[in-house]
Design brief:
Elements: E1 28-30, E2 35-37, H1 60-68, H2 74-82, H3 123-131, E3 152-155, E4 161-164, H4 183-189, H5 234-238, H6 242-253, E5 257-263, E6 266-270, H7 271-281, E7 292-296, H8 300-309, E8 313-319, H9 323-332, E9 345-351, E10 372-380, E11 386-394, E12 399-407, H10 412-420, E13 423-429, H11 435-443, E14 449-453, H12 462-471, E15 476-477, E16 480-481, H13 485-488, H14 506-521, H15 525-529, E17 534-536, H16 540-543, H17 562-567, H18 582-586, H19 592-603, H20 609-623, H21 626-637, H22 642-651, H23 671-701, H24 712-718, H25 733-740, H26 745-751, H27 762-789, E18 794-796, E19 804-808, E20 820-825, E21 828-832, H28 834-866, H29 869-894, E22 903-904, E23 915-920, E24 934-938, E25 950-954, H30 961-977, E26 985-988, E27 994-997, H31 1010-1024, E28 1030-1034, H32 1042-1059, E29 1062-1066, H33 1070-1076, E30 1082-1094, E31 1105-1116, H34 1124-1130, H35 1135-1163, H36 1167-1176
Helix pairs in contact: 2-3, 12-14, 19-29, 20-29, 22-23, 23-25, 23-26, 27-28, 35-36
Length: about 1200
């Protein structure tokens, strides 16, 4: 049967082993030795209170039993469950994983290297567990204020029941352990003898590669094929049991996902999902004929994170009803089928690399960097230009960036966007991208997850996007749609309900639609959109305005495109790692949000002189208070990631979760643990903001240098708005006092619930007042009864049998017709009256109301906290800015070399832009490396040597030309960030953009040669460079013939001279030097070296071996040779080849000189020059 290998979960019974199933025994077997090791925990009661023992069985009878044990198809075991009401109940033992604080003596028998989280029952226990009837919640259980470890139904938002199952206090038998598995055992037991290449699911016709179809029966070769769905034949589904059918239906709609299918306390994977997870997570297969693995609920975060990091998509499927709820649902149906009789399961979250939020069940992350999900739409305007719409978001923070722009044939702006905001996942419209855009995605974003969405149905049109926003509850306020301000700029103004996008924003809205569709699929659209955080993205070169002769107070930024960031090693080096980069050098940040801000400062240096000087002064002020800075940095390091933590708390508030989201119905066995984590997170963020207040108040009280305007920026980020010197740091003390004093933190962390103090919550106060009123009525009525009976009367009973009047026998005769005898004990009788019943009913009603209020209280408290988003966010931004300032100050303070504060001079129209770097050193050397200081002066009109705007740089191979260029570029970036720089002095006009053409790079994947890549980079320079740019070109012309390379280099130099931008242009084409050496607009410089000749005799002079000593010093004039044979010698080339090459080189040089002399002879009118040429010839 095709279904023989399918996973089974339930039959037609009203009960299912899904809510609290007995866990199968875990068996460690070694088939080579015929041994069976079955660790087992004995209930505490069986050992008279002693610690639980393990039983290791290793005898012949066990061996025979194991060998005879047959594995039944899971359908059969689940069919037993369908009839479980008729079966005799047997006592089952399910051994569960150890909690983190438990130890187990089994460790001495097994290898400690394995994680031990695998769910590996033997065949018999598997069959038993699948057919075992689940224990159901007791009717007597109730949600009470006391901490309870017993199972308790929890009513969630929307009035739906949610069951939380905890560990019993009364018995240690519920405790569990997780045995590690010896590697040798694992190798034998893995797969349990089943051929991994012949799993039953591989035999299913509709899963064979050539027969796979999507839900619409389209094959993979069809342009409209949807890889996210799978066609599962209806006749196949009719052969399945209800639980198995449920799995296949979910898989058919999420074929691209690995389903983490909740069965009781475990997540289980079947068939192809099991094969993938077993391989990637190193899990053991469960015994049986089909692929089947699993792990406990508590291990979800670790295992899902591993798969997501490897690029997989994980769908978390939870049980959203109990067997009782299932029975009630079936009872309400007019007609039921066997497929109705299975507990409902729903997808609560789909997680990918681009949609991680690091929620309570997901766990934390140590990675401070942003991870962006981006959607790209494109319209080809011409063969050389495209219109792009983009929308990108870091889902762990919740800020949408929306933009639209035109781009050139090299996709320069798109590349820069991807460099500044590196995406980990890309959404694009299927069959709608141009070839050049695909090349960018395939090469620059090679490690990102890529999803091609179907036009219109998945990648929405702008109108469909806006209709969805209008009809949804994302931005509703009192039934009115209130769009965020930044989003309004993208909307058309010709419609009151704003269902049209502006013409210049249409593709940006389309990209937003793609992101919304994807977030809806992942069940997180409301969580992110309802925050209403939108930012308008404009490419940095669109924002750039040519600098004027006056300092502009507007915040403009230097343009650093993707090529420049890569060539200067700003964010990553040529190998793609962090080592040796400017980010690595400057990153002394103490907080994750500070590190993210430093990343943005590096990508967007300032060009406004006043803003740069404000940063310089702030850093200088911090350097002179090292003790206070050390103290503050320690406090900053203690802060959690407040930015991401706020997003997590918002997602748990009543504002951040839809009332009908599957998560509100999910049944967790570790619900109490998760509730405690939520409270701990909330208390953690409160403590973090309290610490931030202490930090800022320390700065307010500190004696920081305040000469002139030196610390205005520090004052701004540290002072309160109502301070004598106003700042922007919000006054948080009253807010924090309100939240900290409103409930007992210790009790809340202990119980996982908030018990409010009086006055904190109106609803809670009202219900307490009602309970108090009933209590007063009860006391008053009791006094009346004491008077009536003439003796002391007390209340007796609990829960629903409370408030029975306990009366002594002697006085009980006074009980009239209105008294109903309930029971009695020696000497006393117990009565109820209409009044006691009435008061009990009122008390019960108000107590239930109190329970309901307490259940939703945490969400309401979180919502109140999130309502103050502006205050909390402003505080985070101030802390991040302070952290970055301290990071830069720490770098400046710890550098052993001379550091200086760059001096910026306003640009003046008509005057050459200047950069004068004296004794500058390369900033990004590895530890222990020292660099020779060098002067680099361009455009200094008072200096006759370096008054040109372009310097032709020559020098020997490996002499330091590229390092000199990177040094100037990196120091310029640091200067514009406001940082001190490693130099004796630096004077410059602001730079609007840095262009680089450094290093030899090809792009094999995109089919681009080294020469083509060089020309693309050079083309961008010629098209976009202004006179205020800094241009660094290293050895242009490689990869083609000498003549072609020289000609192109010469033409580029000529054009750059015309632009008058500050330029370093290195070359090995010495004919190029000859052409420009007399040009007054071009200066010559070289990297100096010392040459020693090993001359044997005059006859062998042509074959001289030259020994080069690099001086790494930038000097005036041209270098006569490139000394390439020295590099050949260092590379270990054979000596005879080097000598032959030297001889040929001499011949080429002689011929070249003769050509130059002939040209001079016939072109010069100067008789002395002609005579010199004749003599030379």
């Amino acid at each position: 049967s095709p279904s023989s290998g399918a996973p089974k979960t339930s039959g037609s019974s009203t009960h299912e082993s899904a809510v609290t199933p007995k866990t199968p025994k875990r068996q460690l077997s070694n088939t080579n030795k015929g041994n069976s090791v079955t660790p087992k925990r004995t209930p505490k009661s069986a050992v008279n209170g002693s610690s639980a023992k393990k039983t290791i069985s290793n005898n012949s009878s066990t061996k025979k039993t194991t060998e005879k044990r047959k594995s039944r198809p899971l359908e059969e075991s689940m069919e037993e469950n369908e009839e479980n009401e008729e079966l005799p109940k047997k006592k089952r033992i399910r051994i569960l994983p150890l909690s983190e604080d438990e130890t187990d003596d089994l460790d001495k028998f097994v290898d400690e290297e394995d994680s031990g989280d695998e769910y590996v029952p033997d065949k018999k226990s598997l069959d038993e567990s699948e057919s075992e009837e689940s224990p159901e919640p007791s009717d007597n259980d109730s949600f009470i204020d006391d901490e309870s470890d017993e199972e308790s139904p929890v009513k969630t938002k929307g009035g739906k029941n949610k069951t939380s199952v905890g560990k019993s206090k009364s018995s240690k038998s519920n405790k569990s352990y997780t045995p590690a598995v010896d590697k040798s055992i694992k190798e034998v037991t893995k797969g349990n003898g089943v051929d991994h290449d012949n799993w039953p699911h591989l035999k299913l016709e509709f899963l064979k590669p050539e027969k796979i179809r999507d839900a619409n029966k389209k094959s993979p070769s069809d342009p409209n094929y949807n890889p996210r769905t799978l066609y599962v034949p209806e006749d196949f589904k009719l052969t399945l049991t209800p639980g198995v059918r449920q799995w296949w239906e979910l898989k058919a709609q999420h074929f691209d996902c690995i389903l983490f299918f909740k069965v009781g306390k475990f997540y289980e994977m079947y068939h192809m999902d099991a094969v993938t997870t077993a391989k990637e997570l190193n899990l053991l297969y469960m015994k049986g004929d089909f692929a089947h693995v699993g792990f406990p609920e508590t291990a979800y975060g670790r295992f899902s994170a591993t798969l997501v990091e490897k690029g997989y998509t994980v769908a978390r499927i939870e049980q959203t009803e109990t067997p009782d709820m299932m029975t009630e649902r079936c009872r309400r149906l007019k007609k039921t089928t066997k497929f109705d009789k299975v507990v409902r399961r729903e997808i609560c979250r789909i997680t990918t690399k681009g949609t991680r939020t690091f929620g309570i069940i997901d766990g934390e992350t140590n990675d401070a960097e942003n991870s962006f999900l981006i959607a790209i739409s494109e319209k080809e305007m011409s063969s050389s230009t495209s219109l792009y719409g983009v929308c990108f978001i870091d889902t762990s923070i919740g800020l949408f960036h929306l933009g639209q722009f035109e781009d050139d044939c090299h996709c320069s702006r798109l590349r820069t966007l991807c460099a500044h905001y590196p995406p980990v996942q890309v959404l694009f419209e299927r069959n709608k991208l141009t070839v050049r855009t695909k090349k960018v995605i395939d090469t620059m974003l090679s490690s990102a997850v890529k999803d091609a969405l179907i036009p219109d149905t998945e990648f929405w049109s702008s109108s469909k996007t806006l209709i969805t926003l209008a009809e949804g509850d994302y931005f509703k306020n009192n039934d009115n749609v209130v769009y965020p301000e930044n989003l309004k700029t993208f909307l058309g103004s010709d419609s009151d309900i704003q269902l049209n996008a502006n013409d210049e924003c249409e593709f940006g809205i389309r990209s937003l639609g793609a992101v919304i569709w994807y977030l809806k699929r992942c069940k997180m659209d409301f969580q992110l959109l309802s925050r209403g955080r939108f930012d308008i993205y404009k490419p940095v070169d669109i924002e750039s305005v040519e600098l004027s002769n006056q300092d502009n107070i507007n915040s403009k930024h230097m343009i650093l495109d993707a090529i420049t960031l890569k060539n200067l090693h700003i964010l990553e080096n040529s190998a793609g790692s962090y080592t040796g980069t400017l980010l690595n050098k400057l990153n002394h940040c103490s907080t994750p949000f500070g590190k993210r801000l430093l990343h943005q400062w590096l990508c967007n240096p300032l060009t406004t002189i006043s803003s740069i000087e404000a940063r310089q002064n702030a850093i200088s002020s911090l350097i002179v208070i090292p003790d206070l800075m050390h103290e503050i940095r320690s406090e900053l390091a203690s802060l959690p990631d407040l930015e991401r933590l706020f997003s997590r708390i918002y997602s748990q508030s009543s504002n951040g979760v839809e009332s009908d989201h599957a998560e509100t119905r999910a049944i967790y066995f570790e619900e109490k643990t998760y509730s405690k984590r939520k409270i701990i997170d909330f208390i953690s963020i409160l403590k973090g903001f309290r610490t931030s207040v202490h930090i800022m108040e320390k700065f307010q009280k500190a004696d920081i240098k305040k000469e002139s305007s030196e610390s205005n920026l520090l004052t701004a980020i540290c002072n309160y708005p109502n301070s004598p010197t106003p700042g922007v740091f919000p006054y948080l003390t009253d807010l924090l006092d309100n939240f900290e004093n409103s409930f007992d933190h210790d009790e809340a962390m202990k119980h996982g619930r908030i018990f409010p103090e009086p006055g904190m919550d109106d609803q809670y106060d009202r219900v307490l007042e009602k309970i108090k009123e009933v209590d007063v009525e009860l006391k008053s009525y009791l006094k009346e009864q004491c008077k009536h009976f003439g003796c002391n009367v007390t209340y007796f009973g609990s829960d629903k049998k409370r408030y029975q009047l306990e009366v002594p026998d002697a006085a009980s005769k006074r009980a009239g017709d209105g008294y109903e005898l309930q029971n009695q004990r020696k000497g006393f009788k117990r009565f109820t009256t209409h009044r006691t019943k009435e008061l009990l009913e009122k008390m019960t009603c108000y107590e239930q109301e109190k329970i309901d209020v307490l259940k939703d209280l945490r969400e309401r408290v979180f919502s109140r906290f999130c309502d103050k988003f502006e205050e909390w966010n402003n505080a985070i931004q101030c802390l991040a800015t302070l952290d970055v300032f301290m990071s830069l100050a720490e770098y400046c303070r710890c550098e052993e070399e001379v550091m200086c504060i760059p001096k910026f001079i306003p640009a003046i129209v008509g005057k050459k832009p200047l950069v004068e770097l004296i004794e500058g050193r390369y900033p990004c050397g590895s530890g222990g490396e020292s660099f020779i200081p060098n002067d680099t002066i361009i455009g200094k009109e008072e200096d006759g040597t370096w008054n040109s705007s372009l310097i032709l740089v020559t020098g020997p191979n490996m002499g330091g030309k590229s390092t000199l260029m990177r040094q100037l570029g990196i120091i310029s970036v640091m200067a514009h960030m406001g940082c001190h720089v490693p130099a004796k002095s630096l004077v410059l006009n602001p730079v609007d953009r840095i262009f680089t053409r450094i290093g030899a790079n090809d792009n094999i994947i995109a089919g681009e040669s080294t020469f083509f890549v060089e020309l693309c980079e050079t083309s961008a320079i010629l098209h976009h460079a202004s006179r205020f740019s800094l241009v660094l070109v290293d050895e242009l012309g490689r990869g083609t013939s000498t003549y072609d390379g020289t000609a192109i280099a010469s033409a580029v130099v000529t054009e750059l001279v015309k632009k008058q931008c500050r330029t370093l242009f290195s070359t090995h084409y010495h004919s190029l030097v000859e052409d420009f050496k007399v040009n007054p607009l071009v200066a010559l410089g070289h990297m100096a070296c010392m040459v020693e000749n090993d001359e044997t005799n005059e006859m062998d002079a042509e074959q001289t071996q030259e020994t080069i000593t690099f001086l790494y010093k930038f000097a005036n004039g041209a270098c006569p040779k490139s000394y390439g044979f020295n590099a050949a010698r260092l590379a270990g080339m054979p000596a005879d080849i080097i000598k032959t090459g030297l001889r040929r080189s001499k011949e080429f040089e002689t011929a070249a000189k003769r050509r130059i002399l002939f040209k001079t002879l016939f072109s010069s009118n100067d008789i002395s020059v002609v005579k010199t040429a004749i003599l030379a010839l």
